[in-house]
Specification:
about 10% strand; 5-stranded mixed beta barrel; globular; 62 helices; single chain; alpha+beta
Length: about 1550
Amino acid sequence: MAGNTVISDDEDEIGVEEEEIDEETYGDRTHDGDGDGDEDDEDDEEGQDEYEKDGFIVDDVDEEEGEEEENRADSDEERQKKKKRKKRDSERNYVLDEDDYELLQESNISVPRPKLESKKFKRLKKARRDVEEGTSGFSDEEEFDGNGIGGRTAEEKLKRSLFGDDDGQPLEDIAEEDEQAEEEDDVDIGEEDEMADFIVDEEEVDEHGAPVRRKKPKKSRQRPGILSSALQEAHEIFGDVEDLLRIRKLEVRDRYGETDKRSLEDQFDPSVLSEKYMTEKDDRIREIDIPERMQISEEGTGQPAIDDLNIELEREWIFNQLVGGVVPPLMNKRGSAAEDLNEVKSHIARFLELMHVQKLDIPFIAMYRKEEIFSLLQEPDEPEADIQNDPNWRPTLKWHKVLWTIHDLDKKWLLLQKRKSALQLYYNKRFEEESRRVYDETRLFLNQQLFESVSKSLKAADSERELDDVDSKFNLHFPPGEVVLDEGQFKRPKRKSQYSICSKAGLWEVANKFGYSSEQFGLQISLEKMRMDELEDAKETPEEMASNFTCAMFETSQAVLKGARHMAAVEISCEPCVRRHVRSIFMENAVVSTSPTSDGNVAIDSFHQFAGVKWLRDKPFTRFEDATWLLVQKAEEEKLLQVTIKLPEVVLDKLISDSNDYYLSDGVSRSAQLWNEQRKLILHDAFYNFLLPSMEKEGRSLLTARAKTWLLWEFGKLLWDKVSVAPFQRKENDVNTDEEAAPRVMACCWGPGKPATTFVMLDAAGEILDVLNAPSLSLNNQNANAQQHKRNDQQRVQKFMMDHQPHVVSLGAANLSCTRLKEDIYEIIFKMVEDNPRDVGHNMDNLNIFYGDESLPRLYENSRVSVDQLPSQEGIIRRAVALGRYLQNPLAMVATLCGPGREILSWKLHPFENFLTPDEKYGMVEQVMVDVTNQVGLDVNLASSHEWLFAPLQFISGLGPRKAASLQRSLVRSGAIFTRKDLLTHHGLGKKIFINAVGFLRVRRSGLTSSSTQFIDLLDDTRIHPEFYGLAQELAKDIYREDVNDDGNDDDDDMLEMAIEHVREKPQLLRAVDVNEYADQKNRLNRKETLNDIRLELIEGFQDRRRTYVEPSQDDEFYMISGETEETLSEGRIVQATVRRIQPQRAICVLESGLTGMLSKEDIADDWRDINDLSDKLHEGDIITCKIKSIQKNRYQVFLTCRESEMRNNRFQSHRGMDPYYHEERSTSHTEQEKARKEKELAKKHFKPRMIVHPRFQNITADEAVEFLSNKDPGESVIRPNVRGPSHLTLTLKICNGVYANKDIVEGGKEHKDITSLLRIGKTLKIGEDTFEDLDEVMDRYVDPLVAHLKAMLNYRKFRRGTKYEVDELLRIEKSENPIRIVYCFGISYEHPGTFILTYIRCSNPHHEYIGLYPKGFKFRKRMFEDIDRLVAYFQRHIDDPLDSAPSIRSVAAMVPMRSPATGGSSGFGGGWGGSAQDDRWRGDQSMDRDRTSRTAGRDEYRNGGGPEGHPSGAPRSYGSRGRLRERGSYGGNRGDR
């Protein structure tokens, strides 16, 4: 038994390790990971032999392999095998009782005797198993210290990790105490005797000898670690788990040191670590003393080159980009003099140096290096501020667009250089490989020239487009298809281009003979090089020259020339200088035109999103300045618009003409003309097939990029307006400290009942003071009980307000119910003031209720950060808190949603923002938030006491989410700081980060320091950077001495502090200082802007530069409450309304948004005077379509009209400015398209699917049947629904390509109980006079014989394919060859599908007779023939019979409308198919038969009717002249595809 094993004291530690490790390794070795309950007894009986592996920690890989094996071992067979294996092992390692060992020893039999387990061993082993059974997911190492001493239980460990220790002691102290306690326990256990240990072991064994512990052994093999699902569960129970992650990380590092392979990645799901910024990459970013956003940027771009040459090159490039239109207003109002431009260039270079060399962030540069980049800070539209003469002037927030644009251009430049370097390395390698493969000296020389040209072009390229040009040229001549695998081996290219095929066939030599190379042509046309020597034409013609290069692939001279022309055209189209020249012309002159498709013509009305781009005519690229192109692109994707991009004809003609001038020779010989013809073909191919389509594609990309840039700035502008608003300020502010001046806010969110209307009281710091639910306050029920509940809620709200005395009420504008709620709250306030005038403070006298937009609070309500900050609160309470906090600090509230979840991106700010990607939007969000946050500053002591105020910290200069989170934890731990220097010495900021951030972090008496008496430097409560404290002290000292007439030189700290206090108490002294004069006196003109900033900060530190909060206007309130916008709700817009109440003279309706709609009697209809009672026309609950006449925003009402004349009237047009290039067109082609579309829709409308299951039946329309049969063989057929209703089917048969015949099948014996019965197939089916029981019989008795006769005719020796005219021509040829014979043949009647034409010529003119196709055979001259031979024999014998007996076409082929599913075919079979000749259903206009051969006959032959041409054809006499006049135009579409 396991209990008999004994372990000596000196083996305790290693024994535990060996036991635990070998259990794991043994399980892995035998693939036994499940450990079912049946095996528990064997687990404890394993002997010491198993535990041979040293070390305490099991290898991770082994554990994982064991886990995989356990998961696979699920079948019964595997379990049985494991049991047998386990049994063998237990027998081999069987452990005897202690008495047996003593007996064996007495008998001098030596048996290895395992050591007994001590109680300590048992407790440790059990503790381990308890941990393994738990679901905490912590690793094994949590339960033991390094010496194998047992720690806390699993439950205690979980509590300790999640909650921390109650006494707040360091983790190391706790660990020491645990070790001491365990050592005491070990002493006690060691003193016990073996019998006691034996008894304990016996208690743990059941009657079968199996241990009672480890009831869930499967989980014991679970790999330790915390997954995201477990973490999410812990998050929901305990709140934020970020501290848990941090503690675990410290524990792992402290316990196992840096050499241990296990890390947090093994403990937690990677997504959790990434979200909490706890990965190794995040650690590196935190530790490196470089601004965080700069590090992230350099990850993609690489380290920038900081030498003077590279900075100068980048400066020139950025300057050209700025002037070229990236920020068009930059140079508008600034002089274009050379010195001004040079100043801008020098400032750009300095900005780059400050960023890359000194690692300074943009906010720092903008605030503390103004003089060095001053020209980049001046906004062109910003008026010059008169600082000296305007005492009330104060700086405002400034969005540094130019600096951010240069920052973005810097990234593009670095990426460009990175790509250029990578391409150059690849080109060198690929050229060397190609040089080793080619042995032709001429080819090698050409390759060398090409490589040098490509390298030169690569060096000169200064945009991604130009790099693409260079790359395409290189890949053209050095294709990447063949890649060297081993020596002498190549990977076969997946796809060969036509160019490479021609090149390998040697046609490159022919291409070189056309004249100028593509590079020479490009240099000339782009005017980079003057006209070269005169082009000499070869003496031989192109075909003569090409004949020397024919081969198996290019067998003729024309094929060789065609291939060579293709090579030359492709080379021209890939030449960088050619593309650059064409690109410049195309982008400057290309125009865009749009026109609606048939669907777009219907869908796009005057209020549609695409209305402004429906008809654009020749709008130049350069005039697309906003997001118009994005709308055009979207409409094209939705197939509502057709978009055309082209060069104007004049520009295109000039481009082609110039190209001809530079590419063609001036020779006049025959040979020169032939060569020039080839060159013209080359240019035509290059421009029209390659260059212009490529430029159109590039043009689309350019327009998209330009539109998205504009849209991104617009998005940023809207966000700027949201976050640059100052907190709400009380009108009566008699308190000096800013903290107390902040308002107490009562936030209210309307609720329908579940949840109830909720009031939340926030203190001045945004923390919850109290919450009140008022479920009955918004009730409109007139019931006495409901009214009593409402009064009770009013009293509770009144007491709530009296207790907390709010300064302002913020009411969420959710819907129209909020207007009534606002009135209720005002009523409570009036009653409160009236009833308790003494108890109500003076702040309540002018208490205002403001509507607040709920869009941001709703995002906060549903975000994870709100659960972290307010874990025990309901959703509506979290929403109300966000509503109030936004009023107190808009910046912090918005920043709260800029965490890892990026919830801020769901805040809808611009109607077109869906065109932007999340990364693009967040880049702009970060830009705006960084600018605003750093100019506003952050009060670190106040934020240390109120977590939500820390949200903007990540946007402070130099910081980011990782560094900010680390700093926040440090600040919260310390509780407060008293000097900025502490950030460097006590809170882990590196020197560079400290320099970047410290000027924007405010240290003052707030939060926990508000009651402290410790000294705080006044300058730490200003935007003055510590590096300029000396300047500030000098300025204060000079003003102080001048004011008190003190000429002493005492510069000790007390005196300087006194001077600063003096000037702050007398701000008028600072306002009187002339900064320019003072800077001149002190010889500090290079710090003039900084001195002025210091002066302003000494007047008032961290003065709020945001614009003052303004309460929402009436329009703002209307759109917030209704949820509408100016685009969605305007006069003239068509809306749907639901009738709620009908009065004698009007109907009251409700719109979808909840707005009330008023519909007067005279607006009901044009004939409203004939309406006696509105209830006759309308009923409650009716949904009606109306047009908005007018809007009353103050009453939340709209006036509607339903009059047809008004609905048709277009006098209400969209208020958007019409594009000057908008020109509506009404063409006949669009009318025809619209007509065809309507007919198609009508056919679909009449189409009723049938409930029929048969292999030959399909639920398709006539057009779809034709499409289905189009690629089938003649004789194929399909049965489909008939448009005449559910009692008819249609059989569609393919006669030949382009000719399809339809036959009506009448169903009978239907039950008319319901629609389902009608849609089923009838009990009888009738075709003409024949009746069938089902579709199988139709196919067997009707279709199959019919198809057999059809194929017999099509395969007959005298059958000719083609139209009547074509068959006639064939017969004439045959007649001319055999003039004495009467020639004849059969053909298909395209006019009457299902019939054939017998055509014969006696003398000179063709004669025609029609033959009907029947299941029984062929019907000719009213006689039925079973096969064609009998018909021919009869015809030959009776060719001279009187013509009176010849049947008319009406009796042979049923006449049907000419319009059919086929192009020009008929929609019905001939009557010969079994239909009655007199059946009206098949009757048509007989005169529509157009005889192509009639033009050869004389008019008198038809008129007299007695000639040989009249009767044999069976055609009516009216064929004559009318058929002749229109025969050519009529048959083109009837032929189909033969």
